[in-house]
Design brief:
The protein is α+β, with helices and mostly antiparallel strands. It has 5 helices and 10 strands, in the order ααβββαβαββββββα.
Length: about 240
């Protein structure tokens, strides 16, 4: 009797673990693009997506491809739509850990203060645009622009902290900073009342990105640039 009980218990344990393994395997399968399901339960399907599921994305010219863990997507589609937009490349992450946000970063402005400003000095970086820098050019097309072109527009040259140069006048309504780096790629930072928008050119990778972070993190721009590059290199399909 005790032997039969042990056998049944063993079979039950194997069934449970086998089911869990099957579910994990099923989650790892591609989600085919198909018509959207019930819109009222969309939030539930998004919340239950595997956060590590590798979402395939490619840049517009098809030269570079990436596998981005689902949790990093700036805008998280439902399972029905996650593989419908292979050319749409956006992501978000926490600094300094480079971890993804637990909730969809697209709606971060609606998070509670505790979620939007976690303890320990963490802050969110959003990257809604990633583009290829074509051969023979110093920048992609819209919405990116050449650093040289911007510097020709603004004649100021005001040395700033952390290897930045302010090129907009001191009484200008926005603050525009640049860092010219032939090896690592140029940087442009457009700062307003509460936030800064950045443009990083990774010329050796032939990639340009645009994103944003809180203005009080301006002096951490090099760490943000390094973190952005780390994630891109981590996700590139070799």
């Amino acid at each position: 009797m005790r032997k039969n009980t042990f056998t049944r218990l063993y079979m039950l344990i194997m069934f449970v673990f086998g089911t869990a393994s099957f579910c994990t395997f099923a989650m790892a399968e591609d989600y085919p693009c198909k018509p959207e399901g019930d819109i009222e339960s969309a939030w539930f399907r998004v919340e239950n997506m595997d956060p590590t599921y590798p979402v395939f994305r490619r840049l517009e010219d098809g030269a570079q491809a990436f596998n981005i863990p689902y949790a990093y997507l700036f805008f998280r589609p439902t399972p029905e739509r996650v593989n419908c937009y292979p050319d749409r490349f956006d992501f978000a992450f926490w600094m300094p850990t480079l971890a993804p946000s637990k909730k969809e970063a697209f709606y971060a402005n609606g998070w509670t203060p505790e979620e939007g400003y976690p303890p320990g000095g963490s802050y969110l970086v959003r990257v809604p645009y990633v583009r290829t820098i074509p051969d023979g050019k110093d920048a992609p097309g819209f919405p990116f622009s050449s650093i040289e072109f911007i510097m020709d527009m603004y004649k100021e040259r005001i040395p700033f902290k952390n290897e930045l140069t302010r090129i907009s006048a001191l009484d200008f309504w926005s603050e525009i900073y640049v860092n010219l780096d032939q090896k690592q790629g140029d940087t442009r930072l457009d700062c307003f009342n509460i936030g800064c928008e950045f443009t990083f050119y990774f010329r050796d990778l032939k990639i340009a990105v645009q994103g944003s972070f809180a203005k009080d993190k301006l002096l951490q721009w090099k760490a943000i640039k390094a973190g952005t590059r780390t994630l891109l290199e981590r996700w590139i399909v070799r």
